[in-house]
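Q: Can I see a sequence and its folded structure?
A: Here is a first one.
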Amino acid sequence: MCGIAGFLGGGDRGVLEAMTTRLTHRGPDASGFHADTARGLFLGHRRLSILDHVGGSQPMISEDGRLVVVFNGEIYNHAELRAELTAKGHQFLTDHSDTEVLLHGWKEWGEALVHRLNGMWALALWDSTQNRLFLSRDRFGKKPLYYFQRAGTFGFSSELTSLAKHPDAPRNVSELARVKFFAHGLIPAPWTAIEGIWKLPAAHNLIVEANGSGCRLSRYWRYVLEPEETSRPEAELAGELREVVRRATRRRLVADVPLGIFLSGGIDSSFIAALAAEDLGGPALSTFTIGFKEPSFDESAPAKLMAGYLNTSHHEEILSLDAALTCLPEIFDLLDEPQGDGSLLPTWLLCRFARTKVTVALGGDGGDELFAGYDPFRALRLAGLYSRSVPRPIHEGLRVLAGFLPVSHENISLDFKIKRTLRGLSHAPKLWNPVWLGTLEPAELGRLTDSRFTLEDIYSEAIHAWETCRQTDPVDRTLQFYTEIYLQDGILPKADRASMMNSLEVRSPFLDIEVADFARKLPHRYKLRGNTTKFLLKLAAHPLLPSEIIQRKKKGFGSPIGKWLRTGRLAPRPVTELVREKLTRHLAGRTDERLFLWCEYVWQEWLARRKHGEGL
């Protein structure tokens, strides 16, 4: 796990060193540079050593000098690919470096290499014979990659703040990205907070021609739902899923450094922990949990139960408001782009806590998105009927009545779910999901800016995911939204930033390509069965977990931001009338504005730091 940076065109070694130094937290173990001043090519790397400490240094150059690569991530099937390439006559210099597999794989397969990779990656590979730079990002976007092309220079990096060290990098905040952030609580790819800097979207390649003829962006994969009808017994399907996730977990247990498991007490992390314990054995497996003093958010008790069931070496830390306030400045100092997910804070603390014992941790990210684990999936059962049969005046009246429900800041409280559901149903089905999850209603977004953006501009990515899904059922379309928008641009960036700020590598077995292929071919009735979410996944995990874990009501990894904001010690500055209004209502307990106020707080903190130190 590492940080990469580089450019083609204007700049020098000093610029490259400044860019890579900014990524030190992503790779504290070593740094490396490659400079070809004749071509204007500069590649930099910061390393967190996980595999082949001796042979895995980067930038890595092929033996014939033709290729140079910088790479962030892990290729879990590198041993199989190495064996295949060796059989074809390739001679490896390293013992078991996955980076060298990329060099030989490029020679053998060219761009088709990415189709053979099972892992997470953001890479930049220079091919001197083709005089071009090849960039690629993994299928789900677990590893970040930003880029710009301006003034004859192409620059790229793992983080925006690193890219800002290049003198040619754009500086101005994107107004449309800002509105998208408050519409979704995240900034969907390819947008970034900076006008003219782009995220390379998940499952995309980008080829940059050194002769100045431009860039070519292409998509090499998409999570396409292609359900295959089957008459196989459910127990048989569950057994197959269990084996698929077992293999994915086993692939991610390979490391030359200490490894552990994030354990929340939910089914996803518990399933992964149980499978890992089969290989590593109970006490040899370290598990880590963050708890809260606020009971509705605390999952330390079920996590401890699961750890005891597996007899792991369990570690627990309880979070309070005072601890959170102490840590926030450190988080914001390294946060390269605004993240609207309030669980960024406990995720960061969990990663910091785990890093005291291990360098790699496995987590349960992806289980909810692939197998329909969120509450909005339940809402879909009645949403279609409601939207067709309830007249608009009655709907508006119900919203007014719901507004009288007492505000609760408990985790996923009943009033929160009712108000959110009715809010989404005020709009067309293609907007249900982003409005359910977003921080502001569409009608309020216009108060953010003088620029006029249409709903199609603001929600373009969510609309595209809904309308281009090959299946027409709302459950499938919602699955498409969660995998393409919420997972790629919300969950995974949060996990990447929180972990890499602490120099910790996080691996996600549920996002293995074999698991993804199983999930996308599984009819949604095996994911959402009546009111039961993740139906087949729970069936698959049942033989390995205690019934208390299987039957637990989902909480989600949230944090008590609503309560914290009401103390007045954690709040955005009332810089606009909109912020002032919502802050006043929240402090008075009249409405729950936690999502907007947290996003506004994050945006203000991010903007203040960029203006004072990162060159906006």
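Q: Show me another, different protein.
A: A second, unrelated one:
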Amino acid sequence: MGSRISSDALVARLVELAAQAATPVGFAEAAVAELVRGWQCDSLVLAEAAGGPWHSLATSGQPFDVSADLCAEALDSDVAQVQDDEFAVALGVDNLVLIGSGRPPSVGQLAVVGGTCGAAYRLVCRREADTRHVQRLQAILEIAAQWNQTLEMDELLERMAEASTRLLHAERASIFIWDRANKTLVGRPALGVEGGELRISDTAGVVGSVVQTGESKRVDAETGDQEIDREVDKQLSFHTRNLLCVPLRGKGRELLGAFELINKLEGDFSAADETALTELAAHAAVAIENTQSRQQLIKVRDQFADEVMQGAQLIGESPAIDALRSTIGRVANTELSVLVLGENGTGKEVIAKRVHYQSSRRNEPFVAVNCAALSETLLESELFGHEKGAFTDAHQTRIGKFELASGGTLFLDEIGDMSPGGQAKLLRVLEEKTVVRVGGSLPIHTDARVVAATNQKLAELVRAKKFREDLFFRLNVVTVELPPLRDRGDDILLLADHFLQSFCAKAGRPVPQFSAAGRKRLLSHSWPGNVRELRNLTERLAYLSQNKTIDADELSAILMPDSRESSLMSLELPLAEATRHFQIEYIKKQVERARGNMTEAAERLGVHRSNLYRKMRQLEIEGADDENRLD
């Protein structure tokens, strides 16, 4: 038999083995084998007493029966024990003892080497725990990143349950949200329950205890029957052996609920499991709060969109309005460009908003630009944006309306008043879907849907070379024409009632009623300002009228005189003169309504175009000599 290795050499070797070992068991096996060789003994066992019979972690050499008494004495006295040819030394960690037989080392050697072995074992255990902790943290961070990309609460809670059971080796998991107002805990997912949602009292069972105290709780299999709420098991058709439950705390440390794991796959939940679930719950609480905030924002956004949609109602039952609703319903959810035609005040922007809010873009921006109010230079900056220093007043970079409306709708009002240069640049953007800011060179993609509007006849402007033909065809994919209010019949009364109710609600006063004469007066007015004029009239009535009934006289004091009233201004005229005066005013009004289109005016009057010009010459109406011009 060879000579024994010195204690210093064995200590150095144990330190080396600890540095190389991946697991505590691996270190124990290598250390026992090294010590058998170093001490030249027959057998060596690293044994553990964990509240029951002794069991071996690692063995080297010839098998022998471990002396429980010798082990206990070594643990109790904390001093190395040597009896005949057997020896034992406590390692000072987790009830571990080195037990050997054959040629015992000295008590001093046992103490030095045993202490080093215990310290090395602790080091390997701590390193393994740190490694597991880091791995768990990495897994938790990856899981949390996925959670924070989930927008729907139900999907989020299901992902949390699935990830936590996988990470901590449990059968099931549930996240309980605390409904404080109703003193209820709402658990999801809850397999076996209709709707996948379990509702229990916030004082019931282990979860209720965790929510009330704010403290984590582990229930082992031995004590489960005393603490587990078996009524919940009955609801779920499930048997709970053990569980782990930790509180869910928000950013302000407010209790949001609890995170529960049920039935560890092997054994009971450990302190390490509790630490891991607590860390997981911290990320879960953040994800839940973020999802709740997002859902609230989405709810507010949808409510706002609905409110705006309500503000853009098409009031009326006339055939023209019914046809308009049908057209908008068909084109709203397409990507087609829409051109809205109509006189000033007919509600062209309302049509543009309805197209936007009835489309899939309803939750994206709606941006309106009045092209008539801007010069060519300002229009380019307004639509496309500019870089800092692009011109004298460009003190900072500005995003253009096309960029702001990307993903949504850009409403270009009074498109007929756009300059030729602006038309060319607009056409390029519509075709290429990119803008370049004034003073910049970088193309910027834009996905804005364009709805254009004008009170002019673009076809005539194209013929007169005042509007680009290619831009006209690009915008004129779908044309929506708004009738003037005077041609909408009883819609006038519906609109008047609608506006009056709205303004009276804001003014906090009862809604007055229009008398029969008042309604007749509304229908007889020509409404040169269209719906805008009617809206302004009802707003004035809502705030200034003191009467419960609005009569014709009150309306006459507000409404501007129209051609029909002026034609009967004087009752002193002879019948022939009054008739001539009425014909002049009536023909002028019809030509005005047709926007100078004499063919259309003749149709409205029920005469041929040539007869209209002949009548105009008889009445000496201006324009009677333009018979040969093209409409």
